[in-house]
Task: inverse folding
């Protein structure tokens, strides 16, 4: 008999909801985030909201502002230059440590097509996130998936703002196809190199944009 499923703690639910707000672009860099407003919106007490906000501060997504609660961390070229290589390494490791049969190639190619044809930049980024999550999930390494997920949450500030203001991702779509082609051929070492290189190219693009 299966055990009775227990509901997630309120702090986990609050954390997930706030992450969704950030990763949907609803909360932008430098935007203030207050316990009271979030507690009202989420219909929970301020305690689980504060625990979620402190966790997001530890994740590097929020910064505390004296007497003003929290704010979404502003964009910073140095931070971007530090974080992109970490995500490149994590995803490369995930792909290299998987097996070809673990990847749903039809689903991955379908996601690539949906990304390329979506007119909304935030929706494109959300689909892009689903694509990368699927690559990492194929490794069946939960710790690696969690680390990569936290990195993507932190980098979402950069990716979404770039998508909104510039939005050119033709090269990224082509890079995704190359990764899936390498996986389909069974060359996971090459696929690993390609996905890591994809993130390094994304970093160069974002750093160039931030410098303007």
Result:
């Amino acid at each position: 008999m299966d055990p009775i499923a227990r509901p997630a703690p309120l702090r986990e639910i609050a954390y997930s909801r706030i992450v969704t707000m950030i990763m949907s672009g609803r909360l932008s860099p430098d935007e203030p985030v207050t316990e009271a407003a979030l507690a009202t919106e989420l219909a929970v007490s301020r305690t689980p909201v504060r625990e979620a906000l402190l966790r997001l501060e530890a994740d590097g997504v929020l910064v505390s502002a004296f007497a003003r609660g929290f704010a979404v961390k502003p964009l910073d070229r140095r931070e971007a230059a530090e974080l992109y290589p970490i995500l490149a390494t994590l995803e490369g490791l995930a792909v290299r440590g998987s097996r070809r049969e673990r990847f749903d190639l039809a689903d991955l190619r379908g996601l690539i097509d949906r990304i390329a044809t979506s007119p909304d930049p935030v929706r494109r980024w959300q689909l892009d996130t689903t694509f990368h999550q699927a690559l990492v999930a194929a490794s069946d390494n939960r710790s690696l998936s969690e680390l990569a997920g936290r990195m993507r949450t932190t980098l979402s500030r950069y990716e979404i703002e770039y998508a909104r203001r510039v939005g050119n991702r033709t090269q990224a779509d082509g890079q995704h196809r190359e990764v899936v082609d390498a996986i389909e051929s069974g060359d996971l070492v090459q696929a690993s190199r390609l996905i890591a290189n994809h993130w390094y190219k994304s970093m160069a693009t974002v750093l160039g944009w931030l410098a303007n």
The chain has two domains: 10-72, 77-211.
